[in-house]
Amino acid sequence: MIIDFRIRPPFKEFLSMGPFDVKASGFDPQYPGQMYDYIPPRSVTTRDLSVFMDEMDAAGIDYAVVCGRVSSNSSSFSKGYVSPDVLYELVNLYKGRLFGVAALDALDPAAPKIAERSVRELGMRGISIEPGWCSEPCYCDDPRLEPIYETAESLGIFVMITMSYLVGPDLGYSDPMRLEHVVSRHRKTAFLVPHACWPHYSSMAAVSFKYPNLYWVPDFFFYLPFMPSVDVMPAFNTALKRQVLFASSYPVRGLEEAVRLWKEKAWNEDALQLSLYGNAARLLKLFINAD
Questions:
Q1: Does the structure show a pLDDT above 60 at 290?
Q2: Which of 60, 18, 32, 64 is closest to 247 using CA atoms?
Q3: Which tens digit of pLDDT belongs to each residue from 109-158?
Q4: Is the dihedral of CA 39, 36, 79, 93 positive or negative?
Q5: Are residues 100 and 127 in contact, defined by beta-carbon separation less than 8 angstroms?
Q6: Does 75 have pLDDT greater than 80?
Q7: Which helix (H) or strand (E) holds 207?
Q8: Of 266, 261, 275, 218, nearest in space to 39 by CA
Q9: Are 161 and 131 in contact (CB under 8 A)?
Q10: pLDDT of residue 119
Q11: 3-class DSSP state for residue 192?
Q12: What is the 3-state composition of the chain as percent helix, strand, coil, each rounded to the nearest 5?
């Protein structure tokens, strides 16, 4: 069984963002960065949701988490707005297979109320913020974000905080030390980090060893062979095996490609299965064996 913890399918407002709309997103193939060697799957070129669901089946992905987006200050490639209501519409097309995570502008004074409505009325499983791409770029430990973290704790939901070299004006916005300030104050809340603070993997591992409520969602920074990295597999196979989640980050990579490259890493079988579904099932409260 496989749970993909971060996808953005070809549906409504998602289609205005790269790679679905390469021309509008400003993608430059001469300087591809993390998009190097990218081959768009058929669901991207056709912009067809039913084709995407077929690709989920072909990749052996049983469940997936759909993350919204509020990124007014990002590059044009990642800029977009996908509301909780759009997510609600999408996940209800495939109820029980897709799960929604509401995106918030962390500096919006209404964000806590949006989070509460998203969970209580729309059934979202968690919330997502991208501090470096807020209406005003900020750090994850900015005191103005505390009402969001407190709301998540009161609702008993997880918080996704995207952090890497991409998200924010400079590398300081992906510093795991700032993340430590947050997870240490809210130990009852699970914090999931798409991009896993790349390239700060060593510091991210150190913070994760201290706080079991901190989860890696390393997505393509981890499984793409050309992305330079310290070797985190010894930790993923042992002390951190319950804190790692598989995510394709589709459409940045195709589903089958992501699953194949993830499995090609030097996993032991127990840690691999936890990363593919056990840890995710525990966070989503799915009634499957999550041990």
A1: no
A2: 64
A3: 999 999 999 999 999 999 999 999 988 999 999 999 999 999 999 999 99
A4: positive
A5: no
A6: no
A7: helix 201-210
A8: 261
A9: yes
A10: 98
A11: strand
A12: 45, 15, 45
* Residues in CB range of 131: below 8 A, 6 or more apart: 106, 137, 138, 139, 140, 142, 145, 161, 163, 167, 168, 173
* C-alpha span between 208 and 214 (Å, rounded): 6
How far apart (Å, rounded) are the C-alpha atoms in residues 211 and 209?
6
The CATH H-level (homologous superfamily) assignment of domain 3-284 is Metal-dependent hydrolases (3.20.20.140)
Q: What's the alpha-carbon Rg for the chain, to the nearest Å?
A: 17
Report pTM. 0.95
Q: Using 50, 70 and 90 to split pLDDT, how confident is the model at 20?
A: confident
Distance CA 6, CA 251 (A): 10
Residue 77 clears pLDDT 90, i.e. is over it: no
- 70 has a pLDDT exceeding 80: yes
Check: CB of residue 142 under 8 Å from CB of residue 105.
Answer: no
DSSP classification of residue 9: -
Q: Indicate the average pLDDT of the chain.
A: 93
